[in-house]
Write a structure and sequence with these properties.
Layout (H helix, E strand, L loop, with lengths): L1 E4 L10 E4 L9 H17 L2 E4 L11 H14 L5 E2 L15 H13 L3 E4 L3 H10 L17 H9 L5 E4 L6 E5 L3 E5 L7 E4 L7 H11 L4 E5 L6 H13 L8 E5 L2 E2 L15 H7 L3 H9 L14 H7 L10 E2 L2 H14 L2 H14 L13 H14 L9 H9 L9 H4 L6 H13 L8 H14 L5 H13 L7 H8 L1 H14 L1
Parallel strand pairs: 2-3, 3-4, 10-11, 12-13
Antiparallel strand pairs: 1-8, 5-6, 6-9, 7-8
Helix pairs in contact: 1-10, 6-7, 9-11, 12-13, 13-14, 13-19, 16-17, 16-18, 16-20, 17-19, 18-20
Length: 506
């Protein structure tokens, strides 16, 4: 394979792209990045996105994975124009329901001489390679191309069943990649390949191009790992066009690898790759999609944060970089934090509630089912918490103490370490001062003023030593929502009780 020139073709007038995952595991960020770029290209050009499922691997495919793919797309708001659950003129959209189509096309390819029967076993291919002085793993040598009818009959008499292979032409194969420019594969570099197993099962090498042809896909955007199979697809497409099955050759664009830690391709099995792990940790769809868009594309120099509407307005797959993209979880979290801050407070709260319920700090998993007290406290807390969390999974830690009715909160280990020898004296002074405050005057500013005068100005304590024990008493944490605002939300009786509770446990 060589890069001959940097030429990127024009897009067709009516773009038709597809997303066609195999249901073989939990949705991962590489898969979703593929879905996102196809979706963005369709929306940016006014084209169509076709969503189908490639489920011909009976051993690895699962209905659970199929449902997870649907769930992930719906959660992210990636919609499609034709395909699964939507329908359209080119169905069915699950490969397992298209077996007769593949058999028919395979028979036509065989009859036309574009495919041939191959009886060679993997062991025989290795032996022939070694005998010819080639490496054992050199690959298929074209042995079966010119078998006579007698030879085929003899193999059948032995009980052998043939695979079907496509005849690769003895010529260079070049195409203009939408991302990488002109790519050329030298003659002889791609051997004749199997499209149907000896048991009659069609392979991806047949089903994928046939589906693309019949569904009139004219732009194929897929991962770099599939680049080596592109010359096979091009040759098969030529044959399908000759047979009247395909109307045109699609354009190909191969998106860059997503790299994980240590300069390795991000594995599907890496926890950082698992889409649902990110959702469980509290990524919101806007933040995650924004970050995934940056894995190979940028909206503008020195700008990382944008909406999907902004992406659609600017996206052109020809602007995607060919270099590998690195998945940086810290950057992803930082971008997610920006999007959390942009949410309307009510939206922020509604999205937070399922996480709060999961973590045991509210009574229900949706806003409308919460108690009036829970709604009131969360509404008051939203302006304090929303600017400070990066993931929705962090909200419980911030508001748990505000929602709790406990009069003593056991401090976390890192909070305990902050309590110095003066903590008891500080708490005694704070309790004495706060007990004298009228509940009508229990407001953020007056509480701040009172404790500052009592502990810092009159008590002579540095602010960290003055307010640290009060913070730990109120939240049990080293980091919490703003202290005096929290005291106002919790109210006088519970505030004083918590200060006394910590004092008693020192």
């Amino acid at each position: 394979m060589t890069d001959a020139a940097n030429t990127k073709p024009e897009l067709p007038a009516n773009v038709r792209v597809r997303f066609c995952p195999s249901p073989t595991g939990t949705p991962h960020v590489g898969m979703i990045r593929t879905a996102l770029f196809n979706w963005a290209e369709a929306r940016a050009t006014g084209g169509k996105l076709v969503f189908r499922i490639e489920d011909t691997d009976a051993v690895r495919d699962s209905e659970e994975s199929y449902n997870q793919i649907l769930e992930s797309l719906r959660w992210l708001g990636i919609d499609w124009d034709e395909g699964i659950d939507v329908g359209g003129p080119h169905g069915p959209y699950r490969q397992s329901e298209r077996t007769d189509i593949y058999k028919d096309v395979a028979a036509k390819l065989l009859e036309a001489g574009y495919a041939y029967e191959s009886f060679s076993t993997p062991e025989e291919i290795k032996e022939r390679n070694l005998a010819a002085g080639r490496p054992a793993e050199f690959g298929y040598d074209g042995y079966d191309r010119n078998l006579t009818d007698e030879q085929k009959a003899a193999f059948r008499a032995e009980g052998r069943k043939p695979a079907l292979r496509i005849k690769m032409p003895d010529e260079d194969i070049a195409f203009d990649d939408l991302i990488r420019g002109t790519i050329e594969f030298k003659a002889g570099s791609v051997p004749d390949y199997v499209i149907v197993r000896p048991n009659g099962d069609p392979l991806y090498t047949l089903t994928n191009p046939v589906d693309d042809a019949m569904m009139e896909i004219n732009v194929v955007l897929r991962g770099e790992d599939l680049l080596s199979s592109t010359p096979r697809q091009i040759v098969l497409y030529r044959y399908l066009m000759e047979l009247g099955i395909a109307k045109e050759m699609p354009l190909f664009g191969h998106m860059p690898y997503v790299m994980g830690q240590g300069n390795k391709k991000l594995s599907k099995r890496d926890p950082e790759s698992n889409l649902f792990n990110h959702r469980d940790n509290g990524f919101i769809r806007e933040g995650l999609l924004n970050y995934l868009a940056l894995l190979g594309w940028s909206i503008a120099p020195d700008r990382d944060v944008f909406s999907m509407d902004e992406m659609i307005a600017k996206f052109d797959v020809r602007d995607v970089k060919a270099n590998p993209a690195r998945f940086d979880i810290d950057k992803a979290i930082s971008i997610n934090a920006e999007h959390i801050r942009m949410l309307e407070p009510e939206d922020f709260l509604r999205r937070s509630v399922p996480y709060l319920h999961r973590d045991g700090v509210v009574s229900a998993d949706n806003w409308d089912a919460l108690t009036a007290r829970e709604q009131e406290i969360l509404t008051a807390a939203a302006p304090l918490v929303q600017p400070r969390v990066r993931l929705l999974g962090e909200v419980a830690g911030m508001v748990g103490s505000l929602l709790s009715t406990e009069e003593y909160l056991e401090p976390a280990d890192d909070a305990k370490k902050q309590l110095k020898d003066s903590a008891g004296e500080v708490l005694d002074a704070a309790i004495a001062a706060l007990e004298g405050v009228d509940e009508a005057d229990w407001k953020t500013d007056s509480l701040h003023e009172l404790l500052n005068k009592t502990l810092v100005e009159d008590g002579g304590y540095k602010p960290r030593l003055a307010f640290g024990p009060v913070r730990v008493a109120m939240s049990g944490r080293r980091v919490s929502p703003p202290l005096f605002e929290s005291m106002e939300i919790v109210g006088k009786p519970l505030t004083v009780a918590r200060l006394k509770g910590l004092r008693a446990h020192l």
